[in-house]
Amino acid sequence: MKKRLTLLGSTGSIGDSTLDVVARHPERFSVYALTAHRNGDKLVDQCLRFQPEAAVVGDAATAQQVAGKLRAAGCKTEVLHGPQALVDVSKSDGCDTVVAAIVGAAGLAPSLAAARAGKRILLANKEALVMSGAIFMDAAHDNGAILLPVDSEHNAIFQCLPREAALHGGVSKIILTASGGPFRTREPASLVDVTPEQACKHPNWVMGRKISVDSATMMNKGLEVIEAHWLFGLAGDRIDVLIHPQSVIHSMVSYADGSVLAQLGNPDMRTPIAHALAFPERVDSGVAPLDLAQIATLSFEKPDYTRFPCLALAMKALAAGGVASAALNAANEIAVDAFLSRRIGFTAIAQVVDAVLNALPNRDASSLDDVLEADAAARRTAASMIDTLPALA
Ligand code: NAD
Ligand code: MG
């Protein structure tokens, strides 16, 4: 039976890679719904190619434009808009698999809806798990949803862990690898002047702008430590970060007997996406075979928490528990947006996140409302700090 997909965030970088893999296997996958935020023209092209039953955009005006173009081309895709439509296509009986590839907190509601509807979820949207890890994992567990990590590190760990949960007792540590991003060796004092263009130029991966900046600050690795904690149930002190500039080893699992299992591959998201799409089978992803003789050298070093304060802030938020991770994520989203629109400097991102975490009291994350309130409070606080403290820039 073909898998029927809802692809949340189809116009993004993960969306592109997913559709590339899907197009290679028309006998295995069909597309039920595609969603975009503002990029209506790209969504039109994708709808013409994949003929989904539904397409979702952010607002009514874009929906009208997209619907007009699709009708003119004879395409029968129904065009919807707004956050509720994202939830509807995620829990619909029309799909069995949801690829969660919206960036940021906007992905939480539809991803959670997919978990509650017991779907097979391919999770790229790490922010959803960072915000509401316990609630999300409980929803998936209680409703029989299958969670398959797409983030390359987590997909690697998933591949290196024993299949049966009963055997996880032999796992001593998870080792998350990190490239170190574009500023791994740059003089720390000069980081204050880097531009959004420099920050978005990742040495190994081509990604959306927000995750590219997160990689440059290493907040991305911090979010991934939190993501790994929830996905694999290990405490923060059993999740190590290791700098590995070549991005060939995508992560490792260390066992009690001294064995360390690693997953290797070229840095191309189509590998973890194809793995999760076809799991437990293996299919062609279009990724070139790994040529280790040509790469020749794999190197490793410890992370530098002084150069990358965001990594330490994320680990602190995980240790604090409660809504601290949600507040960290929200403050980071606001600060990264301000950096990308040149309202604050690069090093101010960590300063804003730190100041927000210090300003807001932590509390239990017992319900989704607790999480959403913390998210909103952190966004307000971060925005007013950015507005009123130009000295941060
Ligand atoms: P991107 O910016 O390229 O794409 C984001 C997608 O989300 C787009 O389709 C956009 O239309 C949609 N979107 C943005 N804001 C939205 C909103 N408010 N409502 C609805 N839709 C919205 O991002 P990306 O690089 O593809 O990353 C997507 C997610 O995958 C992120 O959570 C990122 O951390 C994660 N991820 C990405 C990569 C990668 O290589 N790009 C790797 C690992 C994890
Ligand atoms: Mg990753």
Q: CATH superfamily name of the largest domain?
A: NAD(P)-binding Rossmann-like Domain
Number of strands: 11
CATH architecture of the largest domain: 3-Layer(aba) Sandwich
- Compounds present? nicotinamide-adenine-dinucleotide, magnesium ion
Please identify the oligomeric state.
single chain
Largest sheet, in brief, is: 7 strands, parallel
Proportion of residues in extended strands: 5-15%
Across the major sheet, the strand order is 4-3-2-1-5-6-7
The level of helicity is 40-55%
Distance between the termini: 55 Å
* CATH class membership of the largest domain: Alpha Beta
Over all CA atoms, what is the radius of gyration?
A: 20 Å
CATH-derived topology of the largest domain: Rossmann fold
Q: Please indicate the count of domains.
A: 3
| Poorly predicted parts | none
Keywords: Isomerase, Isoprene biosynthesis, Magnesium, Manganese, Metal-binding, NADP, Oxidoreductase
Catalytic activity: 2-C-methyl-D-erythritol 4-phosphate + NADP(+) = 1-deoxy-D-xylulose 5-phosphate + NADPH + H(+)
Protein name: 1-deoxy-D-xylulose 5-phosphate reductoisomerase
Cofactor: Mg(2+); Mn(2+); Co(2+)
Topology:
Elements: E1 3-8, H1 13-24, E2 29-35, H2 40-50, E3 54-57, H3 60-72, E4 78-81, H4 83-91, E5 97-100, H5 108-116, E6 120-123, H6 126-142, E7 146-149, H7 152-160, E8 171-178, H8 196-199, H9 209-217, H10 219-232, E9 239-243, E10 249-255, E11 260-264, H11 270-278, H12 292-295, H13 309-320, H14 324-340, H15 348-359, H16 368-388
Parallel strand pairs: 1-2, 1-5, 2-3, 3-4, 5-6, 6-7, 8-9
Antiparallel strand pairs: 8-10, 10-11
Helix pairs in contact: 1-11, 2-3, 4-5, 5-6, 6-10, 6-14, 9-14, 10-13, 13-15, 14-15, 14-16, 15-16
The chain binds nicotinamide-adenine-dinucleotide and magnesium ion (MG).
